[in-house]
Write a structure and sequence with these properties.
The chain is mainly beta. The N and C termini lie far apart (59 Å). The protein is 1% helix and 47% strand. The strands form six sheets. Strands 2, 3, 5, 6, 7 and 19 form a six-stranded mixed β-sheet that branches. β8 and β9 form a beta hairpin. It is built from one helix and 21 strands.
């Protein structure tokens, strides 16, 4: 094949984008206006020449012999990168493109996204071990008369958890009203704040829920340690990214019958990538079941995750996740696709001729301690 050369292009950046439409003016002067909001953060963009010449060196061509050719390559990731993230109005995305540069013809381009996992060690946050509590009450009006209040208290043993871990749920609901409560449920919500250059936008997405049944008038009900298992999710805060922020809310909802708003008791939790020492001691070590890594992944140094090391790649080294050595019996995590599923990762720089992996879900740490993740189907 005649070509100018073969290049790899490594990219990492965050993008935020959304539009808002509103009607302005009155009467005949009304008009619909659509405003766009956006922001970008670039973490790296670098090309590596594997064969031939750079485009700036002219239009001379070289011929690549028929058959299979392997080109070794190395790219060192910069430190302190934010975790991969795919959201409704923005993303943090990392990819590498292989480009066969053919003068006067369309280039052959193949794209491969990859995941970065920023470490969030729960042991470094004193609040992760602290219990969290919430309380709320609500008075329901019935035929213009107020009945007794509905009260709800919600308790978690601690604030910090990792994907794969069980959250035990404790709550006490008292129905002192004259109306039946149809159900109570506890849901996990991912709350994402997108920061454009002139405005911010907050979205909330339900990840999973557990539901309990009705509570009759004058009765009470207690949640007594029901288990919510965290699915694979990005760590809280999205450290290293200034235009996207993530937090997680576990919320108790009490749903009275008839036309009335739910009674809500929200509690913020922290989702990390390294579990608390006290939690690790409760579980015997388990063999990890990581996803198959990309060719060229290596064994990272202590405190780093595979694919995020600042050390040169050694293709001959075995791939094995290594966790901090100061935690006894620390189990290496598995790596599982985000529970939110795959999204289309075609970007502005991709054309109709771009091939490769265009549907992608980031992978995150997941500690396989024998539990099944809680989903939207609930209980």
């Amino acid at each position: 094949m005649a070509m100018r050369g073969i290049r790899l292009k490594f990219q990492g950046q965050a993008d935020v984008y959304w539009t808002e439409t509103e009607t302005r003016g009155t009467g005949d002067d009304q008009q619909t206006v659509t405003e766009s909001y956006s922001a970008k953060e670039k973490y790296f963009e670098q090309e590596v020449l594997l064969f031939g010449i750079w485009p700036a060196q002219g239009r001379d061509t070289v011929k690549l012999s028929a058959g299979r050719t392997v080109f070794p390559f190395c790219f060192v990731l910069p430190p302190n990168l934010p975790s991969s993230f795919e959201g409704s109005d923005g993303h943090v995305r990392y990819s590498v493109k292989g480009i066969i540069d053919k003068p006067w013809k369309f280039d052959h381009t193949t794209k491969r996204p990859f995941s970065i996992i920023s470490i969030l060690d729960l042991n470094a946050d004193p609040s992760a071990m602290m219990p969290v509590d919430g309380y709320n009450q609500k008075t329901i009006c019935c035929l213009c008369f107020a009945s007794g209040p509905i009260t709800a208290s919600f308790h978690l043993e601690r604030r910090g958890y990792v994907p794969g871990e069980v959250i035990r749920l404790f709550a006490d609901i008292r129905n002192n009203s004259s109306r039946k409560i149809d159900k109570s449920y506890i849901e996990l919500k991912m709350v994402t704040v997108y920061h454009a250059t002139t405005k911010s936008k907050t979205t909330a997405k339900e990840i999973g829920r557990i539901v309990e049944g009705p509570i009759l008038e004058g009765q009470s009900f207690s949640w007594e340690g029901q288990e919510f298992v965290l699915p694979p999710l990005p760590p809280s805060h999205l450290a290293g990214c200034k235009i996207i922020d993530i937090k997680y809310i576990l919320q108790l909802n009490v749903d009275p019958s008839g036309p009335a708003l739910d009674l809500e008791v929200p509690l913020e939790i922290i989702i990390g990538t390294i579990p608390l020492r006290q939690v690790v001691q409760q579980f015997p070590p388990r063999a990890p079941s990581p996803l198959q890594p990309l060719s060229g992944f290596h064994q990272p140094t202590s405190g780093q995750y595979a694919g995020a090391s600042s050390q040169p790649l050694d293709p001959s080294a075995p791939w094995e996740p290594v966790m901090p050595s100061n935690i006894p019996n620390m189990p290496p995590p598995s790596y599982s696709e985000c529970v939110l599923g795959k999204v289309n990762v075609k970007d502005e720089g991709d054309s109709q001729y771009t091939r490769g992996v265009l549907e992608f879900a980031p992978v995150y740490t997941y500690y396989d301690w024998g539990h099944q993740p809680t989903t939207m189907s609930g209980k």
